[in-house]
Structures are given as structure tokens and as C-alpha cells.
Specification:
Elements: H1 17-27, H2 29-37, H3 43-70, H4 79-87, H5 92-116, H6 123-150, H7 152-177, H8 183-213
Helix pairs in contact: 1-2, 2-7, 3-5, 3-6, 5-6, 6-7, 7-8
């Protein structure tokens, strides 16, 4: 049995559908996920949406990084180090390509791993929720850019809050996609997989270091 509160989806007539869905994503994540999944968006629409989100995220990420590096640096950071950091910022196109690849990998992981644990979600649904969560992250990043320019300390707090909210949204959307009863079980599964992935990367890095040293 899936989580099934009253999901009428009714919003004021003047509210844009995307804004209404964003609000519901925060107030009722599983209801928003079901609303999105039930649309059964065709592949061409998903591809266009993913491309748009990737391009805008690339531009936003580039602006965010450059704005962050334009803030006053700590005294221990030299001008040469700051210049080097600015030179290492990937351009908008590179960041857009990374964003697109990341969405593909995340959608595949959500679908495949969910099915491995008994989920019933479809690949199209996994792609749709991944694109939507990426779009919400894009909106959050735009807000962070404004806060970073006007009030950096508040931007830091907002970033922490968004990270926490984003994890919960991901958990809830996956639970709804795969018809899992408990979002908390998905949350702990995500933590466990993240730990195993980090451990595997650390071991892989140590092996590479040992080979290079030998």
C-alpha cells in the first residue's frame, strides 16, 4: 500500500502549474511526486525538459561559483591561489554537460536500485522526478545567488536548509515512485548506499595511490 493522503491537486486558478507543483513538493512531497508521475510525460518532453534544466543549471552554477570567488577571501588565501581557483571554474557549457550526465546517472540509479529492492516504479517516472528535483535545485541556486550577493551569512544558512530539504524530497519522491510504504526506510537506504559508495571510492583511491607509489 502506498502513501495516499487527499491528493486533489486543487490550486488557485491564477497559480502557474509549475509554481503550484513546487509548493506541493514542499508541503506534500509524495503527493507532488504522484502528480508528476501520473502525467506520463512522453520521452521527447522529458528530453527537452532535461536539456533546458541542464543549460540553465550550467549558467547558474557558473555564476554562483564566480560570485562566491568574488567575495573577500580569508587572509591566509593568497592572490595567486584565488586567481588559480577562478581559473579552474568550469564554463557554463561544461557544467551543463556535467548536469545532464548527472541527471542520467541519478535517474538510472533511482530506477534500477529501487526495482532491486522490490519497487514498482517505471523508468519514465524516475526520469521525470529527477528532472523536477534538478529544476527545484536550479531555483534554489538562483535564490542562493541573490542571497550571496546581498547577505552572504544568510546564504550559508539557506544552503544548509536546502541540502536538508533536498534530501527529504529525494527520499519522498523515490518512495512514491516505487510504492514503498515508508519514506524513512528509503532515507536510511540512501544513507547506506552513500556510505558504501564513499567507502568504495576511498578504497579505490588508496589502491591507485599504492600502485602509483609502487
Amino acid at each position: 500500500m502506498s502513501y495516499n493522503p487527499n491528493r486533489t491537486g486543487m490550486e488557485p486558478a491564477m497559480t502557474h502549474p509549475l509554481i503550484a507543483l513546487a509548493r506541493q513538493s514542499v508541503s506534500d512531497p509524495r503527493g507532488a511526486a504522484r502528480r508528476l508521475i501520473d502525467r506520463n510525460l512522453p520521452p521527447p518532453v522529458l528530453v527537452d525538459a532535461a536539456a533546458l534544466v541542464a543549460v540553465l543549471s550550467g549558467i547558474s552554477g557558473w555564476l554562483f561559483a564566480n560570485l562566491l570567488l568574488s567575495l573577500p577571501a580569508p587572509p591566509e588565501v593568497t592572490a595567486a591561489e584565488l586567481a588559480a581557483a577562478r581559473g579552474e571554474v568550469a564554463g557554463p557549457l561544461s557544467q551543463a554537460m556535467v548536469q545532464a550526465g548527472g541527471m542520467v546517472l541519478i535517474a538510472a540509479a533511482i530506477w534500477i536500485l529501487g526495482r532491486m529492492f522490490g519497487g514498482v516504479g517505471r523508468a519514465g517516472g524516475a526520469v521525470a522526478i529527477t528532472i523536477w528535483l534538478s529544476a527545484l535545485s536550479l531555483a534554489a541556486q538562483i535564490v542562493l545567488i541573490v542571497l550571496l550577493a546581498l547577505a552572504p551569512p544568510i546564504a550559508v544558512l539557506a544552503l544548509i536548509g536546502w541540502v536538508v530539504l533536498n534530501i527529504w524530497l529525494l527520499t519522498s519522491f523515490i518512495a512514491e515512485l516505487h510504492d514503498f510504504d515508508s519514506a524513512w526506510s528509503v532515507f536510511f537506504a540512501i544513507l547506506g548506499l552513500a556510505f558504501l559508495l564513499a567507502l568504495g571510492l576511498a578504497l579505490f583511491g588508496s589502491l591507485l595511490g599504492g600502485v602509483a607509489g609502487g
